[in-house]
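Appendix B.2, paired examples.
Example (i):
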Amino acid sequence: MAQTWSPIFSVIFILFFVATYFSSAQIPIGGARRPMIFPLYLASPKSSLHRQTIEGSYWRRHLKSDLHHLPNARMRLFDDLLSNGYYTTRLYIGTPPQEFALIVDTGSTVTYVPCSDCEHCGKHQDPRFQPDESSTYHPVKCNMDCNCDNDGVNCVYERRYAELSSSSGVLGEDIISFGNESELVPQRAVFGCENSETGDIYSQRADGIMGLGRGQLSIVDQLIDKNVINDSFSLCYGGMHVGGGAMVLGAIPPPPEMVFSHSDPYRSPYYNIELKEIHVAGEPLKLSPRTFDAKHGTVLDSGTTYAYLPEEAFVAFRDAIIKKSDLKQIHGPDPNYNDVCFSGAGRDVSQLSKKFPEVEMVFSNGQKLSLTPENYLFRHTKVHGAYCLGVFQNGDSTTLLGGIIVRNTLVTYDRENDKIGFLKTNCSELWKTLHIPGAPAPEAFIPTPKSVPAPAPVVSDDNNTAAGMPPTVAPSGSPQKVLPGEPQVGLITFDISFSVNYSNMKPNFTELAEFIAHELEINASQVQFLNFFPKGNRSIIRWAIFPADSATYMSNSTAMNIISQLREHHVHLPERFGSYELAEWKVKPQIKRTWWEQHFWAVVVGIVIALILGLSTLGIWFVWKRIQNAPKTYRPIGARVPEQELQQLSLVSNSEA
């Protein structure tokens, strides 16, 4: 009997050991037990588990892959790199869809949003996800491929970041929609439903993260595993002061001018490039050939704002920029940081190349990516026409390239061919650049504050009104070119709620109007104070923005850009004005006036001038007539006059007597 049960107990013990090992291992599908910390603390680049995951995905996808066309998910990007520190896109989860503004992050492998029962979540842009209101939501039940909650019921995840922020929660599965500009129909996908946030994740305005990194929980990997998109995606960030941009999940035809760098998927779970040299004004920095290959190499991360170089490279780069620029150096906007800043460059971004040198990044294959000043500078927030270096020293030998490096640059993450492509372009006109058939055209509409984006047409028949706000250049004083049928805006009114009382605010209306105009880059005469009314402990001030003096209207895109900057807190006001928020806004179309209304004052002026000229002529004629009819007081020469009798000299006669 003992001999019979002995093999059975041995088998049970082995199975128990294997199950215990795999349930505690760091397997991506369940959210790693060992939290991801980025950018300074990466997982081991030679991790055998990572290599097995990559190899398995590689062969699985290449067996599926062929040359047939798969749809793309074309999505707009919003927000601004400097003002917000990130770019967001709109994602729709559930049935009916619930909208979320998510940071696009190539350094994260999980997509997560705040859950309705979150115990420690901040106040974000949109309402929290309501699982009970989605008929298609299902929690991911505990299994061998995930970390489980304390009750052993549901799968959980946890992510920690280098700036000491974190996100944790449960894993759920639901239908995810990509907006009505996407060819890709809604798909079921696994995402994180947060029940705790800390640090920047807690305080940020964006709702959560859209993970685009390598890993089975990544939204990209999930779509690829379903064979609904090709193994590629692209990001295109707007330029300085423009914001916005575009994102494509799936493959796009690479333009012939695009330059590529090899990206090694085995080195780390993050996207890396093979950077060899940096040239400033055509001169290479004097660095070791392995400077940019040390430790984790050169990592490209869309969720990081600036660029961080190893100490040796940073010092050489900083000194080269200072040497090639003859502008005056000034202190940075924050006294707590030793920023390298320059004054006197002017506000016109297109002219910065005359003040600052061109920078080139040279890849190991010899191809070069040219960087304009907007790719390594950011605006000084306190000095007009001043800029600061957006490249800093890293804490270790890793080279980390954030979003500033790729502003106005199309970046294609061609995962299938292990390379990353770069193309300098205007990201607000990306579809024209790529000549994509059926690409979305700018939508013409005048929204209201209640305009709510709807999901993809497959899920709902509503229009996606938010998609009508394309990333555009900042408004200028002159009217922009208006597309046929595009509404022409005649007036924008908006209420700003300030956390100060009226008595403190009253003397500063003019100054405040000038600050608003400066931040929106419009003429101060276009911003006018309309009204004030108190609301509790706050002050509501109503403003109006009119077209420039030389224009009778502003384009719809200009108006939407102004509203977007106000709504997304892109307008930075001095601290003495207190915190503010956009309470309400209205866009009024241009009023089509009749001929008489358009020329009323011209007619009035003409009549007045005619009256003045008529009265002047009449007055002159009347004076002349009076002169003609006046009696003559002179006699002609030689005219006969009546003789007068001389008076008697009575005085003489009396004296003689």
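Example (ii):
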Amino acid sequence: MSVFNPRILDASIRDVTACLSDTQKADVLLHALQHLPSEESRIIMENAIQSFLQVPGVPPSHVAKAILLRAKTRLAAGYRTSAQQDLLFVLSSDPANQEVKAIIQSEHLRREMLIREPAGPPRFSSEVWREIALNLPKRDHKSLLLVPHALSRIASQLIFREIDLHFTASPGPPRGDNKYKDAHGDHDEQAELDAWHYQRSADILTRILVDPIFASHVRSLSVYAIVSDASHILAFKTGSCSFFNATMSQSLLGMLINSLPKLSNLRSVHCSGNRELINRVLETMCTSNHRLHSLSLNPVNRSGDIDIPPFKHITHFSITAAGGNGTSINDFISRSHNNLRSLVIKNTSWKFPADIISVRHLTILEFEGRFSADSLVFSEILSTGYQLESLALSGILECTPSAKFRLYRSSLPFLTHFAFKIIGVHQHITDRDLVPAISEFLRDRKHLRSFHLIVPSADHHCVGFDASAWGVLPSLINLRSLCITFSSDLSPSLAGWLIPRSVRALTMEIMVQPAEDVCFINQLCLGVPPLLKFLGITNFPMCFVINVIDRSFSNLRLVRIDESVWSVIRSGDGSLQIEQWPYRRIKYYTAAWLESLECEEAIQHLV
């Protein structure tokens, strides 16, 4: 007895149609569509007819048949308005079509109903509106909440996919720094802001507890439960008023722990706070079997270690800390090294754990710490990091890595972002070939989109940093983001022309303020890329920068001077205004604002 395999028939049909022309394939498709049931195949029919109509050279009679088939399917699915438009199209090409007349009679339609235009705009599906909303800046989603439309519900879902909870207002700048005085105000305003954040966080957590559908939409959660003070860094302040704040924060903590098991689709978590808070959050998430993909931690305790449970699906891990021995962190990285694709470690007292990190699996690596003399960090990264797309290294240099950059000149072929920041150089270390070696390592890399090179003025001589470090820039023809230390032996007028024309975000670290500020900025502006949207300068008076923005930077959207950021606003009459960013916007909402200002390339300049 022979056994029939239907896949053989499918393969035969595919082989036969592969030998036909596009017009002949359209005929086969039209014949096959006539056998589809109208009630259960609307999506298949819609896609098939759409592709059929795009084939050139199809006879008009076949086009009419295809449109009629789609009209029948739409009627069966309840899409009467679009079906009527299809019937009208067939009648306009074949007024005597009996099949159309029979449908009109059976559906109790009249000719004038077919001619009538739809009463409103076309009704898109929720999936289409969702795709439209996804292509809008995140800040525009809040405006969509006011629209009496399905977009309002979709915008609400998109907004609350990423939730940030602030148990206190925020860590602010040092009290002696009055740069953000207008943004923060006095103690009463701070207390009012604390109360607002408490109420907001409580409302969100309550919604998570009582609404499973709302909770299922949450993908990313950030928790900030720290207060920064010049005298101490604790989870909560002390004192009578602060005791009330601590009580409220403990209440929020209990709500948070109860809410975490409800977040069934949570994939990304960031937690800033004391060791006890972070440990409780991590333990609860592990117990709830969350399939976390991204975990970011910022413990404020200088002593004590964090116990990270064995999350099995983490692909991105980030830790920013001060002090500590990092034993448990190293254990977690060692257990997860086969899954990790992105790793960020920031602790100036830690060494690079080359023996536990599998660099060959990483696409993103950022390390800030110590590069000890016996460290294998540079040889390990450059020799095995074949898949690295982003590499950012920062810290205190206790070794001489120039030879490694020379040896692995052609490594890291997929590198798009490279950052090297020297915080300090050990007094016994001299590596005058380091910066020239880095320049040769990056030269002619057409895929490089971002390049950051920061060297303190005291270390220029011992690492070989001078005007020649800028000489590699013209070869980076697709560079979009540049942050580089300005060399004192480089002419400002030449520096502007060395910057690639493709750069959109530029920061210059000027370690020593020029003797003639106006002359310096005027010469620099002559060659700066005309499409620049972000400009950052350190150790420079703001008044001189503002004077040249209007005449030299017509596309500039943002200016950063030291730690302050200003939006550049151009009025309809051509006048120029600047608006300083509040501290909280810089601290927490930089990415969303940069997206709305179309300055995404500047994200690395503000974090």
